[in-house]
Amino acid sequence: MSCNIINISDKQYFLETQVPISSSKTKHLIQIKELLYSGKSEYQKIEVYDTYDYGKMLILDGIVQTSEKDEFIYHENICHLPMFYHKNPKKILIIGGGDGGTLREVLKHPIDKVVMVEIDKKVVEISKKYLPTISEKSFDNKKTNLIIGDGKEYIQKHKNFFDIIILDLSDPDGPAEQLITKEFYTNVKDALNINGIISVQSESLTEQPKLTITINKRLKQVFSSVKVHQAVIPTYQGGIFSLTVASNTNLNKVTFEQVEEKYKNLNLELKYYNPKIHFASTILPKYLEKIFKNIY
Ligand code: SAM
Q: pTM here?
């Protein structure tokens, strides 16, 4: 039995570990039907729960990574924002993303190839077994090249190659710790083509604002155009979540009409993303705009 399970009045709950780099004292308590898997890989503790409200959930080191109910919000945003900012992305790199949700979304586009570098093969195996609806057989697609390895090392060996690089990483206090540094972002810039775009999960605006600011400040040291987008993803603690997209081409020059034309031509099957949400998601409420004035 996991020490993250607690019993209250004969009901079982998963108690999420406090997210890192947060001053919050609030914790997430989720009623579970059962613990489906609990084990340890070389890198982290992996758990899968079946829950009443969110369906099956993947947990790494006590922190929720994804859930069947709302994974589409996170995966559509982290993928389609950069893919629609870009005119014609063909070569895509995902670092992390072991559950396969981002891979599934990338493969909806007319791309040539997608490389996915995930450090922990056990996350891929467990996700395929217990959460098959998230990857939807994307790992078997002939355009997919899954590499089990450290994204930090992989990126150093590639120059001027990728159109889009997506950092679908866990919080930076485990194997992803070195992947929010200026040095790493510089290596990502070097691995991108001239018009290349990076997309980063940049944590909760309300729960981990310091972390979002750090990620954004470092991205701004390397990329001239940085845009923070927000989405509410109920499974993640703390309300408003952020996805940041950056490039050395001016993302502000991409117009609604351009995105809409591409969106109509591609006619993808999506549940969250559309051109209106693409642009609306850059707008923050006033109280957050004030906290994030250094980013905007
Ligand atoms: N949706 C996410 C969240 O909650 O933040 C991310 C999910 S995805 C499962 C994160 C993945 O990043 C994990 O499977 C983890 O193994 C992988 N990862 C962490 N550090 C990495 C590294 N240095 N290189 C490649 N993958 C890494």
A: 0.96
